[in-house]
Amino acid sequence: MSFFEKLTKRAKEIDSLLCVGLDPHKSELQEDSAEGAFRFCQRLIEETADVACAFKPNAAFFEVYGAAGWEALQRVLQLIPPEIPIVFDAKRGDIGSTSEAYASSAFQQLRCDSITASPYLGGDGLQPFLKDASRGVWVLCKTSNPGSQDLQALQLPSGDPLYLHVAKLCWDTWAKEHQNAGLVVGATDVEAMKKIRGALPDVWFLSPGIGAQGGDLAAALEAGLRTDGLGILLPISRGISKAESPKKMAESFRAEINSLRKGSVK
Fold it and tell me: What global pTM score does this model have?
């Protein structure tokens, strides 16, 4: 089974496009330690697994605790039920041999289903992540931060913004063999979502920016959904983890997403 087949299966089975972010910020931990990060994620997984289409652990919040943090990350990953896809948010990308090592770490050692990666080094830097059809790669395309405009929105001689060129290269060339790439397209830039969806009607989006970053959920779904009501995975981290009841908040987000997406699909 390919990664996107697994993701689609999960989305349909539990009627959810919600991706629960596992971001153990120090400010949210009861104990500022690797063990504190583990317990934080353990609670989130236990409370949200029923409605999570995927889980997205962010590598940085574990790496900050050194070797103990990496061990905590491994323990967290083991808690995630095997039917739930994992998006390893590490934003890797380097020359081929280094990317080979990054891919082996994410897919063989950590046994994650997918990873976020940077396209800045070009196709040969991404190929080690893309060569296994059962694994997915979320390629940074138009990110949710304000600084994304500095480079990603530059206009090319063709008239396309750089992010749209990256999206087309990724789908039509780099991932052509297995079609196992998705695009990181922030929910904070609805116009970019519309342009990319118009050019690539089948690709999956990973669209951060809802919740703490202020993205408009209704507008993002209107712009990013495929005609089948799928095709966009919505990561929410602090909006869930800071709630008094992460379980109830996750259920609320799923219900809101479903209500809006069923109204958006024509």
Answer: 0.95
The yes-or-no answer on residue 91 being catalytic is yes
Coil, strand or helix at 160: coil
Among candidate residues 91, 168, 194, 242, the one labeled active-site is 91
Phi-psi region of 111 (alpha: psi -120 to 50; beta: other; left: phi over 0): left
Rounded distance, CA 33 to CA 41, Å? 13
> What are the structure tokens assigned to 124, written together?
């040969």
Which amino acid does the sequence have at 156? L
pLDDT averaged per 10 residues, the chain (length 266): 97 98 96 98 98 98 98 98 98 94 97 97 96 97 90 92 96 95 96 97 95 81 96 96 96 96 70
Decide: 89 and 114 in contact? Cβ < 8 Å.
no
Decide: 185 and 164 in contact? Cβ < 8 Å. no
Task: With beta carbons less than 8 A apart as the criterion, state whether 4 and 233 touch.
Answer: no
- The H or E element spanning position 185 is strand 181-185
Pick from 29, 10, 26, 27: nearest CA to 18: 10
The residues near 240 (Cβ < 8 Å, ≥ 6 apart) are 20, 21, 44, 48, 211, 246, 249, 250, 253
